[in-house]
Design goal:
The protein is an alpha+beta fold. The protein has one domain (about 1-175). It has helices spanning about 1-15, 20-25, 40, 125-140, 155-160, 165-175, and strands at about 15, 30-35, 50-60, 65-80, 85-100, 115-120, 125. A five-stranded mixed sheet has the order 2-3-4-5-6. The protein has a two-stranded antiparallel sheet with strand order 1-7. The longest helix is centred in the last third of the chain and has 14 residues, at about 165-175. The chain starts with a helix and ends with a helix. The structure holds zinc ion (ZN). Zinc ion (ZN) binds next to loops.
């Protein structure tokens, strides 16, 4: 589908930033990434439905070092490792990343478990790629339904027939995020 392909290219062009300049100028980037664009993430999901909303804000930390603050939200469909049925997984992530220059010595910070995560400053940082990384790092290793709420194969098949319920939930979530 050529139109979809064009859309994906457009999205990726919009999400490339000069990370240090972005932090210095305290810029902000908001957007929505369709799960279909997050190819690496799809390996962990039962389907590519839905999208992920993000906000990236540039700024400085208390020590005046350049940072990127990320907020990520959405609803993903993981696979329950007990019943193999689809599992709604609400995504709500926030993280602050410290920008460091290539080869920069992090000194004592490197051993401090409380220290912020670091990423290398990049003139062409792909925010979509970064967000996908953050999501992948945050996913549970073995997602499961709550005890007693796993579905039999039969009820899982029935549930397949009621897909609109999942869409309604997603729509409600989108509405809740004010977009
Ligand atoms: Zn289950």
């Amino acid at each position: 589908m050529p139109q979809k392909y064009y859309h994906a290219r457009l999205m990726s062009a919009q999400t490339v930033i000069d990370s240090l300049e972005f932090a210095r100028a305290a810029q902000e980037l908001r957007g929505r990434l369709p799960v279909t664009n997050l190819v690496r993430l799809q390996d962990c999901l039962v389907d590519a439905d839905g999208s992920v909303d993000f906000v990236v804000k540039g700024g400085r930390d208390a020590e005046r070092r350049p940072i990127l603050a990320l907020e990520i939200s959405g609803l993903l469909h993981l696979q329950c490792q007990r019943c193999l049925g689809p599992l709604d997984y609400p995504l709500q992530l926030s993280n602050t990343l410290l920008l460091v220059r290539r080869g920069e010595d992090l000194g004592a910070d490197a051993d401090d478990p409380e220290a912020a995560d670091c990423i290398e400053a990049d003139l062409a940082l792909d925010v979509a790629f970064l967000i996908e990384d953050e999501i992948l790092l945050s996913l549970p290793f073995a997602p499961r339904h709550a005890d007693g709420s796993c579905q039999s194969v039969l009820s899982a098949m029935r549930r397949e027939g009621s897909a609109p319920a999942a869409f309604a939930k997603l729509a409600a979530l989108k509405k809740g995020s004010g977009q």
